[in-house]
Amino acid sequence: MTAHIPKAELHCHIEGAVSTALAQAQAEKYDVDISRLIDGDRFLWHDFTSFLAAYDQTAGLFRSEEDYALLAQTYLESIAEEGAIYSEIFVSPDHARNAGLSPDAYLNGLGEGMRRARETCGIEGRIIITCVRHFGSDQAVDVARYAASRPHALVTGFGMGGEERMGSHADFTTAFDIARDAGLGITTHAGELAGAESVRDALEHARPARIGHGVRAIEDPALVAQLADTGIVLEACPGSNVSLSIFDNFASHPFRALRDAGVKITLNSDDPPFFDTTLGKEYAVAQSAFGMSDAELVHTTRTALEAAFVDDETRQALIAKL
Ligand code: ADE
Ligand code: ZN
């Protein structure tokens, strides 16, 4: 049982946090056929490529400020119920635009949902604007410029998701430089679908404070030592990894090994309903499969709060809750 453990999350894609029930309601609202997206209470996908397609189709069900307010509010309230005190959501202006919504309206809706959840549950949150790797470097620069304009008070970070097996972080240096120069925290997906070389590539060209996943660094002991020495924080998402068959099962997941090697590592849900997980389930797996004690779980939350892209006053107030 981890219900009593305060939790913090650094890595959740908001369009990947849509419950099947909410997706059904949105499909009815906009009269969209989702028979090939959802079966009962399960999103339909069979590999990473079809997962990304399902993610895109789900995003297309959210078309107004209020749709996104409802999504952010329901998601944050659901994890607050599991003990979460802080959450960073990954958002994608490209997906909003594809659904006919301006990036400003998208952020205003999400911000309003976050405000409501804070009011009802006390959960704190920030927004990380992400570009999409397989949409290409020009679009990434546009997204970075938008993020750098500080379009919303809750935007504190910039990152990249998408198809890791495509291109190199070298193609995205300009985007990351723009965001970093604007004072945004930097994180990027690497070491999920691709191995240790991809993590090295991300470190060299994106110069992030955190890596989304990063767990395949385990394939290279020198890289693990480098991560431990430099204090780069990994946003591990074990449920997502096992669901996508990155690792066969939790017993073979390297969370514990990376932690024992001195790497700063956190627990996250990635795209929870797609991977049949929640933040609470991730903490429960860490307890049952990785042998984490209550004190170690609280320490994991502390690691997340120390690495959060948030002002120091808020950080200290959150840490004081542990
Ligand atoms: N976008 C949404 N979920 C993702 C994941 N797990 N990896 C890369 N990009 C994503
Ligand atoms: Zn992710």
What is the CATH top level name?
Answer: Alpha Beta
Number of domains: 1
In one word, what is the shape? globular
Structural class: alpha/beta
| Number of contiguous helices | 14
What is CATH's topology name?
TIM Barrel
Explain how this protein is built:
By secondary structure, this protein is of the alpha/beta class. It has helices at 20-30, 48-59, 65-81, 93-98, 103-121, 137-148, 173-181, 196-206, 221-230, 238-243, 255-260, 279-288, 294-307, 312-319, and strands spanning 7-13, 38-39, 42-43, 84-91, 124-132, 155-161, 185-190, 210-213, 233-236, 264-267. The chain has a single domain (7-320), classed as Metal-dependent hydrolases (TIM Barrel), CATH 3.20.20.140. It is 47% helix and 16% strand. An eight-stranded parallel β-sheet has the order 1-4-5-6-7-8-9-10. A hairpin with a 2-residue loop joins strand 2 (38-39) and strand 3. Helix 3 (65-81) runs parallel beside helix 5 (103-121) and helix 6 packs parallel to helix 7 (173-181). The radius of gyration is 18 Å and the shape is globular. The mean pLDDT is 98. The chain binds adenine (ADE) and zinc ion (ZN). Adenine binds next to loops. The site of adenine (ADE) has 10 residues, from loops.
